[in-house]
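Hello Y.,

Per our agreement to keep a running log of every chain we model this quarter, I'm adding this entry. I've kept the format consistent with earlier entries: sequence first, then predicted structure.
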Amino acid sequence: MIMRLKQKGYRLLFRLSRFLCGVYAKLAMSKDEPSDNLMTFFSRMFFFSLHGYWPHIKKPRTFSEKTFHRMLYSRDSKLTLVSDKLLVRDYVKEKVGDSILIPLLWKGKNPKDIPYEILPTRFVIKTNHGCQYNIFITDKESVDKKAIEDKLNKWLKTNYFFHVSKGFTWGYKNIEPMILIEAFLEENQNPPLDYKFFCFSGRVEFLLITYDRFSYHREKHFTRDFVPLDLWNGSDQYPGPFVRPIGLDKMIDTSEVLSTEFDFVRVDLYNIKGKIYFGELTCYPAGGWCPFKPRTWDFVFGEKWEIK
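Predicted structure for the entry above:
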């Protein structure tokens, strides 16, 4: 009974604090300035509802606290550059060349202009200004073009910073919305594994692999030496077996080059039979929502992040 009341209290606090953050962001955060004390207080309430402890956001210790610290106070223009799924391609090309970029099939602003007639059977439609704005097309002959147009128009009218993340993920705030279409990646007729490298001051310290991301969506964390970690961080654990990826060292080298300008960034890559493809640079993993279990890992990851 006490546990149920506690869980209900967390849910109520979650809804209330997120609502307050969203409202206050629209009222007071039109300028690109660090969050003020009132937004910080609402954010602490929100953090508490997610993680179960009152955070040290201004002098953060854990990885989750430092993610919130970045979201509330960092207004580095590079966060906007690499959060833009179109502009980041130029950043990657400059750093490591364009051979790891997923082929770009089309870009534009109007869904009505999508040239379906010249696109392959399978492709991915995205917008560049938020998270999870993806439409996976596996057979273009059976697509509902009107439904796709309506969805894209809805996304294009959304400011992810204000409307979705409620004043947190500032890097998305000033991105000009665009549509991009990329080639459809697959391995043995399945989506490829998603490799996420946690890079601190230009060094890979941890790796997260997402398995079965469109079905069971299970994950596993590893050290940079591919030692599995007993760590839960929001998704079910993949039970194994764990096979060291072909070209892991090359993926680590690539991630470290791409991360050199950041005190922390997560570099997301794909690896199809040893061929590396760039996914994205993630500045705010999971928006700081997912607690680490056991919590000691939140401190371990946090110790690696030396905020500049």
